[in-house]
Amino acid sequence: MRIAVTGKQGQVVSALLERGSVAGVEIVAVGRPELDLVDRASIRAVFSQIKPDVIVSAAAYTAVDKAESEEELAFVVNAEGPTAIAEVAKGLEIPIVHLSTDYVFSGDKQGLYVETDATGPVSAYGRSKLAGEQGIAAANPNHVILRTAWVYSPFGANFVKTMLRLAETRDALNVVADQRGSPTSALDIADAVIAIAKRLSADNDENLRGIFHLTGSGEATWADFAEAIFAGLKTKNGKVVSVDRITTADYPTPAKRPANSRLSNDKLKQTYGIVLPDWKESTKVVLDRLL
Ligand SMILES: NC(=O)C1=CN([C@@H]2O[C@H](COP(=O)(O)OP(=O)(O)OC[C@H]3O[C@@H](n4cnc5c(N)ncnc54)[C@H](OP(=O)(O)O)[C@@H]3O)[C@@H](O)[C@H]2O)C=CC1
Ligand SMILES: Cc1cn([C@H]2C[C@H](O)[C@@H](COP(=O)(O)OP(=O)(O)O[C@H]3O[C@@H](C)C(=O)[C@@H](O)[C@H]3O)O2)c(=O)[nH]c1=O
Ligand SMILES: [Mg+2]
What are the residue boundaries of the RmlD-like substrate binding domain, all occurrences included (predicted)? Predict the structure, then answer.
């Protein structure tokens, strides 16, 4: 099976390239310059040459704060581009698996978010990703939209790498303790995406299509996540960094973030039998590679 995935250096595309060889699946990464999400002509040209069985739409404008001042560009990259890719997939009669985000929700709900809950993004990034979900669903019924969250990995830019970098020069860090979600390893996402892509290309069942939540098991605040990272750092090289637990109000940012980002993964478990490992276990795996 051949999977075309958008982007070249991103976390999820990098994880797919690594995990694809383990799973015996050919992964073809398509990104700039051949495929630029702001250039519709490049989107139409590239996939018919690759002849994939499934397209994975992983490329995105992910700079959450910067998107507040570049909302138009975020919409082109996160909504118009992926919608055009879904149209291409429709023309090729193949499924598209698209990555979306917890940031499509407001964070005001008390419990876990399920797939049918009302969306209500509170940031430009979240609005652009929601528009992407809607465009894809309208363009190609043969789609799976995977809402994940708090992605980290040995690749690209992410919270784990930021914490380790800051730890080089600091003994204590202020980290928000009133936003709750589930850190998710891109390596675990890649394994799930490959399993889902295999099922989709073999089975037309419409129950396999639609929106699914896909996050690491367990939950944490960003402060909990930072503490787990620094616990791993201490074990590895003895460096001690303490976390001062602060509120969102004490950490002003251009973009608002949901206070509650916790997503129920029951639908994915029931439909596909997929459950991601606990975030603490996967954090250790990533720290082992980074340290
Ligand atoms: N990171 C996170 O915490 C979360 C991410 N997601 C979603 O998961 C998906 C994967 O995220 P992640 O791997 O972390 O993303 P990254 O930020 O690591 O990578 C972004 C990717 O998008 C590509 N890209 C950006 N702009 C363009 C463009 N104009 N044309 C072509 N490619 C472009 C980049 O290209 P290049 O290779 O050239 O740099 C890169 O490969 C995204 O859809 C994201 O919205 C969902 C929840 C959380
Ligand atoms: C660096 C730093 C961040 N923070 C806070 C800010 C923020 O609330 C939280 C996480 O910071 P980040 O900049 O990594 O967060 P952010 O870029 O908003 O992460 C999001 O990215 C997009 C792409 C998604 O789709 C989301 O699921 C989520 O992963 O931690 C601190 O409290 N202290 C710090 O030293
Ligand atoms: Mg960020």
Answer: 1-290
**How far apart are the C-alpha atoms of 273 and 195, rounded to whole Å?**
10
Digit-coded pLDDT (tens) for 174-227: 999 999 999 999 999 999 999 999 999 999 999 999 999 999 999 999 999 999
> Which residues span the domain enclosing 105?
2-158+183-218+262-277
Structure tokens at 86: 């879904």
Residue 186's nearest CA partner among 224, 225, 152, 144 is 152
Instruction: Give, rounded to a whole angstrom, the gap between the first and last alpha carbons of the chain.
Output: 34
> Could you tell me if residue 285 is inside a domain?
no
Ligand 2 neighbourhood includes 101 CB (under 6 angstroms):
yes
- Name the closest-CA residue to atom 9, ligand 2: 222
* CATH code, domain carrying 70: 3.40.50.720
Whether ipTM > 0.85 holds is yes
107 DSSP assignment = S
Would you say the CB of residue 101 lies under 6 angstroms from ligand 1?
yes
